[in-house]
């Protein structure tokens, strides 16, 4: 870490030289000035972490120098040196942004300790500012869409964003459910608080519980210290439960209790803890079917389903495809490229079973494979669209038959590599194994 930069301003030359030598020995980068005018000249050329000013200076006094420094470098922490007759003035300096003041004659060790505290305060502020910038960048997301059914969803989000009621987001894989969960958070009064996502299908049962609620030292092998869970990390903000239908029944019981009371226990603890979070859940499953099959608790479903957002698939908002294409290209490394009219028409005619996520991947592929400024249809490598229309599906196949055929076809294309097949289908590997068993697929 770079040494902290100090500016010392005092008209007592001997004391000034003593301070500079001592602070340099302590590892600081130190510059000095005997009056405010020289100090201002240095402030216009160099940034300082901490400044130490005598209140009584020839010409411009220390208070005026403090005010001017805060104008030039508001992040610099400033200590004021004061005699007994100027303590009231030093206290006044605190109102203008001074970090602290020290009365002359002072103990050098006391001064060094106060400078170190000021340095740490400056570092903390810098770190917090950096974190705020990072959070702001994360918060800057775009929801693209002008279709009527899409606008209805956005309107509902704006109306319920600042409430505390749980929200259930339903939609096919790739429709951007987490994006809408973020909108619920960042368009609300809790936008400065944490947004904590949890993938309910990505963790084993035992690990999911401890990740959600935390654990105490000794709760299980490897629990060498207390750990705060994601529920606590989200205190004051939003807990986003993605892949809700994947959540094990044992964890569902504990989640239900938390939703009803706001209280929970860390794994291995007997003490109750309380937090206040807004819970948003998302799923691509038919939850009523999951409940009927005993895979999901009905009481938890109704506790979460206070307000339901149904995200329309891309094939039902095709007028948004050109807008999304334009957005994806502008965010790419080659924002100057364009799609040919034929390519745009081909995309608008495609059914996009993978929804917005698939469209994004198709555009990335087109940008990569195109050799000129224009992306042609053949650059997109669109798969043959064998998805039946809704009328055809209802006329010839049940939804289960369609799903079985689609999963079987995908497994075959991926040579029964279940990880790749699950990724293509937009579901978890665990969910894919369940579907294989459900439909009796065996390498056909």
Explain what this protein looks like in three dimensions:
- The chain is an alpha/beta fold.
- It has 20 helices and 14 strands.
- Strands 2-1-3-4-5 form a five-stranded parallel beta sheet, with helices on both faces. Strands 7-8-11-6-12 form a five-stranded parallel beta sheet.
- Helix 13 crosses helix 15.
- The longest helix has 32 residues.
- It is elongated.
- The two termini are 61 Å apart.
- The relative contact order is 0.07.
What is the strand and helix layout of this fold?
Layout (H helix, E strand, L loop, with lengths): L4 E5 L3 H13 L3 E5 L2 H8 L6 E5 L7 H11 L4 E6 L4 H9 L4 E4 L4 H32 L8 H13 L6 E4 L6 H10 L8 E5 L5 H9 L16 H4 L4 E5 L6 H13 L1 E2 L8 E2 L3 E6 L3 H6 L5 H7 L2 E4 L10 H10 L7 E2 L1 H9 L5 H15 L4 E2 L1 H4 L9 H7 L2 H15 L4 H8 L3 H11 L5
Parallel strand pairs: 1-2, 1-3, 3-4, 4-5, 6-11, 6-12, 7-8, 8-11, 13-14
Antiparallel strand pairs: 9-10
Helix pairs in contact: 2-3, 10-12, 13-15, 18-19, 19-20
Give descriptors for this structure.
444 residues, alpha/beta, five-stranded parallel β-sheet, 20 helices, 13% strand, elongated
Radius of gyration (Å): 31 Å
Mean pLDDT: 87
Which percent bin holds the helix content?
Answer: 40-55%
The termini sit apart by 61 Å
Strand content: 5-15%
Q: Classify the secondary structure makeup into a structural class.
A: alpha/beta
Strand order of the largest sheet: 2-1-3-4-5
In this structure, how is the largest beta sheet organized? Answer: 5 strands, parallel
Number of helices: 20
Shape: elongated
Tally of DSSP β-strands: 14
- Uncertain stretches: 388-396
């Amino acid at each position: 870490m770079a040494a902290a930069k100090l500016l010392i301003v005092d008209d007592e030359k001997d004391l000034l030289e003593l301070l500079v030598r001592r602070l340099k020995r302590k590892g600081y980068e130190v510059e000095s000035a005997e009056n405010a005018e020289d100090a201002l000249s240095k402030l216009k050329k160099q940034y300082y972490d901490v400044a130490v000013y005598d209140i009584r200076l020839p010409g411009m006094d220390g208070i005026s120098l403090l005010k001017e420094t805060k104008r030039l470098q508001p992040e610099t922490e400033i200590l004021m040196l004061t005699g007994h007759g100027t303590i009231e003035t030093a206290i006044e300096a605190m109102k203008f942004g001074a970090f602290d003041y020290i009365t002359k004659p002072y103990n050098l060790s006391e001064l060094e300790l106060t400078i170190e505290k000021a340095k740490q305060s400056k570092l903390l502020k810098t770190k917090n500012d950096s974190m705020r910038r990072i959070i702001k960048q994360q918060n800057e997301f775009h929801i693209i869409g002008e279709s009527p059914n899409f606008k209805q969803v956005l309107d509902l989000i704006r109306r319920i964003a600042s409430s505390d009621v749980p929200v259930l987001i339903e939609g096919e894989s790739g429709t951007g459910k987490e994006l809408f969960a973020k909108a619920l958070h960042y368009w609300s009064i809790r936008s400065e608080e944490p947004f904590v996502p949890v993938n309910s299908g990505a963790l084993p049962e035992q690990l999911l519980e401890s990740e959600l609620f935390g654990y105490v030292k000794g709760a299980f092998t490897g629990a060498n210290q207390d750990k705060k869970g994601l529920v606590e990390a989200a205190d004051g903000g939003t807990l986003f439960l993605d892949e809700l239908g994947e959540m094990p029944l044992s964890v569902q019981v504990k989640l239900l209790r938390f939703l009803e009371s706001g209280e929970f226990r860390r794994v291995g603890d007997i003490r109750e803890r309380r937090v206040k979070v807004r819970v948003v859940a998302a799923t691509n499953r038919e939850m009523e079917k999951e409940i009927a099959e005993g895979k999901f608790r009905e009481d938890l479903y109704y506790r979460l389903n206070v307000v339901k957002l149904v995200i329309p698939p891309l094939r039902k908002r095709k007028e948004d495809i050109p807008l999304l294409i334009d957005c994806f290209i502008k965010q790419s490394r080659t924002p100057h490229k364009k799609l040919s009219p034929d390519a745009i028409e081909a995309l608008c005619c495609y059914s996009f079973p993978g929804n917005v996520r698939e469209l994004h991947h198709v555009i990335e592929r087109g940008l990569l494979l195109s050799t000129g400024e224009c992306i042609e249809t053949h650059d997109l490598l669109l798969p043959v669209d064998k998805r039946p229309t809704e009328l055809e599906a209802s006329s010839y196949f049940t939804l289960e038959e369609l799903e079985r055929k689609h999963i079987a076809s995908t497994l075959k294309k991926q040579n029964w590599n279940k990880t790749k097949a699950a990724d293509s289908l937009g579901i978890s590997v665990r969910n894919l194994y369940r579907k294989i068993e459900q439909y009796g697929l065996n390498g056909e």
